[in-house]
Design goal:
The protein has helices at about 1-15, 35, 40-55, 55-65, 95-115, 125-155, 185-200, 215-230, 230-245, 250-255, 305-310, 325, 345-350, 375-385, 390-400, 420-430, 440-450, 460, 480-485, and strands spanning about 70, 270, 300, 360, 365, 370-375, 455, 470. It is mainly α. The strands form four sheets. Strands 1-3 form a two-stranded antiparallel sheet. A two-stranded antiparallel ribbon has the order 2-6. It has a two-stranded antiparallel ribbon with strand order 4-5. β4 and β5 (about 365) form a beta hairpin.
């Protein structure tokens, strides 16, 4: 959390607030990008810092609370009750500010490296030039990823190039910089230019190197981006290329993915390395105070509506769907008649702590962020088939995942119509990608096609009545934060929110 607060201070002073007289003085000890980077080795050190700036935790935490992934936990002391769990979003919301600030921090770090690289002279055609270009390619891919994140949360319509986008930042701003929002199409074009540079200059990376950006990252990025834009022909093409390299992780190795002990043959395409608690982010105290066990003081627990999709017999020792042991901690206690018991009995005896980030590196809640997995790619290909009315292949793609996750009657039936197809995809994404930061965006882009919105279990939302939210609600686009508005007057707010 200290790192997040520091980023807020750094990026706020860099991007949003104007300064006056005395503090506008350039200090003699101030390091500009030009002075910071003098050698290729300096650029590599700078790139390490850019990687550290890539966010992930805030988006996952917000998504889990605002949608239907969590419910109040037995140790909840009011967390989320006056915000996300009540569907409360406005320009003062800390979630919107964190997602905005952290992604612009990553962009700012990348821009400083890109600008500073102009000062590093290398011989044309040399190994040093190739190394420099490879570093720049990774930095520009990270900048593209941060812009993709910003668009998905802050653009009202990712498929409309004329809709409101975000601020296009391709330089290192000063304290008086004020920019308006570009169109969504302009941001997509900017992302595409960064990806094209990265694709042309990045070194071939072996499949086992999943914490640094390589060509497979770019393919997965392009597949997700094309799906978000509704260009499913292109999306399928990128997935098909990845299909030659990756497979769905077998059931007996699935848990290892989320304990960061997976084999090189894992379906993980790219992940953000998290090795030191507090240094570059972790999930400490997001969902629980101590650990992810039933006795670890859970603030939030897995929402029963999600858990019921995974559970058949109410027994954590029988795991028809192996994902049950990852989504909910293995120590979870389950009441089969949870709908009829008193609130006190339910709270104390039906306890489902979030288990996806329980323990790695020997530390609680320290886990790598899985940015791209092949199972997501398979479900993107299922979206292609839904878009062309090929419902048999929609079922086939979903069942290819379920065959590696579920025992017994694991397959789904072929959908009868388009709405059923989209609903089947959305439900499988809800299970397979739970607590990985997808649900909010998935409802935003697929919910109306599937006629599905937020679906919390009635028992878990009885305390405040916030049980459902339609996917066409304006709150599936985040508001421009008040901090940005204060330092950048005139920036246009998203529909539904007041200034």
């Amino acid at each position: 959390m200290k790192r997040i607060k520091l980023l807020l201070v750094v990026i706020s002073s860099t991007l949003y607030f104007s300064c006056e007289d005395a503090i506008d003085i350039t200090q003699p000890s101030e390091l500009t990008p030009e002075a910071t980077f003098e050698t290729v080795q300096d650029l590599q050190l700078g790139l390490n810092g850019v990687y550290l700036a890539v966010p992930g935790e805030s988006q996952i935490y917000f998504t889990s609370l605002f949608t239907d992934e969590v419910a109040l936990g037995k140790a909840n002391g009011g967390q989320g009750t006056d915000g996300e769990l009540a569907f409360l979003l406005n320009n003062n919301s800390g979630d919107a500010a964190s997602i905005w600030v952290e992604n612009y921090a990553a962009i700012n770090f990348a821009n400083r490296l890109i600008v500073g690289a102009d000062n590093v002279e290398v011989e044309a055609g040399s190994a040093e030039e190739a190394e420099k270009l490879n570093i720049l390619a990774q930095a520009r891919a990270i900048r593209a990823f941060a812009n993709l994140q910003l668009l998905t949360y802050f653009s009202p319509d990712m498929k409309d190039d004329n809709s409101l986008g975000v601020i296009l930042l391709d330089f290192v701003p000063n304290n008086t910089t004020q920019l308006q929002r570009s169109t969504t199409g302009e941001i997509w074009n900017f992302i595409e230019s960064d990806l094209a540079f990265a694709e042309a200059n990045i070194e071939p990376t072996v499949v086992t190197n999943r914490t640094y950006i390589g060509q497979n990252f770019i393919l997965a990025f392009r597949a997700r981006m094309a799906a978000y834009r509704g260009d499913y022909v292109a999306a399928k093409g990128y997935v098909d290329q990845l299909d030659a390299v990756y497979n769905i992780t077998p059931r007996n190795q699935y848990t290892a993915i989320f304990r960061d002990t997976e084999t090189p043959a894992s379906e993980v395409i790219f992940k953000l390395e998290r090795t030191v608690a507090g240094q570059n982010g972790n999930f400490y105290q997001f969902w629980s105070s101590v650990n992810s066990s039933v006795n670890g003081s859970p603030f939030f627990e897995v929402n029963r509506a999600l858990f019921n999709l995974l559970d058949v017999d109410g027994d954590m020792t029988t795991n028809e769907d192996i994902r049950k042991l990852v989504v909910a901690d293995a120590t979870s206690t389950i009441l089969q008649d949870y709908t009829s018991v008193s609130d006190a009995v339910y709270k104390e005896n039906d306890v489902l702590p979030v288990g996806k980030y329980s323990i790695t590196e020997g530390q609680n809640f320290l886990a790598d962020i899985k940015v791209f997995r092949f199972s997501e790619m398979v479900l993107i290909r299922a979206e292609y088939y839904a878009s062309v009315g090929d419902f048999a292949n929609v079922a086939a793609e979903i069942n290819s995942i379920r065959a590696n996750r579920v025992t017994g009657a694991s397959t789904i039936d072929i959908p009868s119509n388009e709405q059923q197809a989209w609903a089947a995809i959305l439900q499988e994404r809800r299970i397979e990608l739970a607590f990985e930061g997808h649900r909010y965006i998935d409802l935003k882009r697929l919910g109306t096609l599937a006629n599905v919105g937020v679906q919390r279990d009635p028992r878990d939302c009885a305390w405040n009545g916030a049980c459902s939210l339609p996917a066409n609600d304006y709150r599936f686009t985040l508001p421009i934060p008040r901090g940005e508005q204060a330092g950048n007057p005139g920036i246009q707010q998203n529909p539904g929110y007041s200034n």
